[in-house]
Amino acid sequence: MAKDAAAERMKRKDYEKELEKLQVELCHLQDYVRENKLRVIILFEGRDAAGKGGTIKAITEKVSPRVFRVVALPAPSDREKTQLFFQRYMERFPAGGEIVIFDRSWYNRAGVEYVMGFCTPAEHERFLNLCPQMEKYVIDGGIILIKIWLEVGMDEQERRFKARIDDPVRQWKLSPMDLESFRRWYDYSRARDLMLKKTSTKDAPWYIVRSDDKRRARLNCIAHLLGAIPYKRIKKDKIKLPNRSDKGRYNDQVSLKEMNFVAQRY
């Protein structure tokens, strides 16, 4: 019997080979979005430790931050709590030629806020009812909206949390809220199911990516995005470096000798 693909982790060499191909295509997508003034929003939601940050990094590490803009909002301030709920998110929406990636989004209301009691049941119900209408308004306004849910299994989430506890360079990723979400696994499952049922619409469907294998999840996400945003390769003139001008030539290294340099420890 063939091994389950989900249980067979993708090798780093294979992952990096495929990732390089996809990142080249992301650069072509970037050119098309910029030239045609497209506006794109990509939402990443999912359980804690599902791999949102790593997936977003894989998408953005080879492209321009002026085109691919990542938004990861902190908890709302006292002032923001008095605004319309969607207001602080809409302030970050893309202009022409931009792709905005939300590392968590307005769907906080359907997840952590609801489970942890940071909003009332009435506010939660109102959000679920109004969210599809708001998203249709956004899409009708010409914005491409893509919603991704990363789903990590119970055992894999526990393994990742324990790895963070033991790794000093990853401990910052483990907040008290993460620990509480670990304890309330089934509460989050019910909140997830209700959210998907109410807000996965024809206009703005949710797409779920299993992320127990982070490498496969990242590649599948990028491939999905490339298929969800229509684009063509932009023909560009070959770039040629101009000749340097000798006008005003002088020894520009001598002028640095009296400056402070960082010690060369390596």
TrEMBL record:
GO terms for molecular function: polyphosphate kinase activity. It comes from the Bacteria. Residues 10-235 form the Polyphosphate kinase-2-related domain. Keywords: ATP synthesis, Kinase, Transferase. It is an enzyme of class 2 (transferase). Gene3D superfamilies: P-loop containing nucleotide triphosphate hydrolases. Its EC number is 2.7.4.-. It catalyses: [phosphate](n) + ATP = [phosphate](n+1) + ADP. GO terms for biological process: ATP biosynthetic process. Pfam families: PPK2. Homotetramer. Belongs to the polyphosphate kinase 2 (PPK2) family. Class I subfamily. Uses inorganic polyphosphate (polyP) as a donor to convert GDP to GTP or ADP to ATP. This is ADP/GDP-polyphosphate phosphotransferase. It comes from Bradyrhizobium vignae.
